[in-house]
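Lab notes, practical 5.
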Amino acid sequence: MKKKMAIILAALMLGSFAACNKQETQTSADITESVSIQDMKNTDDIVSSSDTSEDIVSNATTTKKSKTSSTESTKVTESSTEKSDVSETENSQIISDEKNVSENSFTHISQNKKSTESSVQITPDRTTENSTEEKTVNENAVTENSVPVARENNKSSESSTESSTVSAESSKTSVYTANTSGKLDTTDLFSNRDLTQTADTSNAVTITAQDNQTQTITQEGVYILTGSASNFTVKVEADKQAKIQLVLDGLNVTNSDFPVIYVVSADKCFITTTNTSNSLSVTGTFKADGDTNTDAVIYSKDDLVFNGTGSLDILSSAGNGISGKDDIKFTGGTYNIQTAKDSIEANDSIVIYDGTFNITSNKDGLHSENNDDDTVGYIYIQNGTFNIKALSDAIQATTVCQIDGGTFSLTAAEGIEATYIQINDGTFDIYATDDGINGAKKSNSFGTPTIEFNGGYIKVAVGQGDTDAIDCNGNIIVNGGTIDVTAQMSSFDYDGSAQYNGGTIIINGSQVDSIPQSMMGGGRGGMKGNFGRW
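Output from the prediction step:
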């Protein structure tokens, strides 16, 4: 009986133990499930960048409850980090321990992700051309010994920017040496792009001329103009910051009464000839564009730059050839111009680095004058070949005409006229029916008219009548060079003083040792030998 009772008691105790063990097992499973669910929530919290700092720290603390949950959280964090393009070094800083995730770590991930995304940009091909090349005028006080010189701001940055638009394989950039000792400081007159004789056409737009059509250009860029047409106009109406380059590649246009190229607005317009022949003509009387008197085959309200390796023929039967209401520059190319009025006319300046110019004009060949501002209107020539026949002046400037070199054959009523004329070098053959070289008071702001010779060979012949080879309403200064005069009436005429500091003066074939005053071809002023014809 006792043995039977013992067996029953043992069975009851065993059943109770099994029931208790089953309950503990269920509780453990519940805890594990609870932790897994919480861990999933923590993982979502880690990925989200919108959680508060307190939530992030709390979630990181909860993650410690389970090694399995911590491992999953770390994997999620690493995946998020990879999507943010964070380097391995940054990851070691962001995630210092699989079980510890700080507030600063997630902040760093968010910021780094934004930085990576913003660095991916699409840059337009012509971004470099958008650099501002603003032209300004030196506003120093105008004195007898100084003249305003057109300068362009940020020249060093402009030069590097503009030169970057030129293909290294196709560019032909001229080498320019500035003259800082002349009447004009020419340091900032030319940019690299001005001097580059071939255009970068890799992203150019081609425009083919068509009859009775106006093609309007509004965006900065390079445009190739080609073809033959009648009454075709390219109109540039772009932003004041825009640089437009028109590449003439075998363009032949004849218009009846309106410009072939009409620049209404731009920062600067380049007109570049390829190694081709180009011809632009206007055969009739120009018609106005509203209040604008468009009086030239090429008419511009803003800066113009002519360069290239080809030729450009311009015919204007009733007006000007080229008119610019600001500055006009030439750095290369060949120009054959026939006009009823001025062949090349600019308000502020005509600046020439190089080129060949064959000009026939019923008025002036080169003319620079601003009716509203007589402190500008200058002409600078560094080099080039000039064959000019004009009924009035071959070369006329309001303020300064400075010539540093070149070859000149000038036939006109007056060869060169300006308030201050400075000849530093060059070869001149001038025939005039009035005055060969005339220093006249054309600017009330500038001072005493002066003619200054520092170098070169200057041959001047004048016709019969009341003519002067060298005539100045002020002073004449000869520091160097050779002046060879053939005068029927007067070789030198001046109202102020004459300085002979060096050089050679020849009058009618004979050398003299002083500058004569208003005399007929010889007889006074230290003349030597036979004076030749009178």
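Observations recorded by the TA: The longest strand covers residues 243-255. Residues 2-47 form the longest helix (46 residues).
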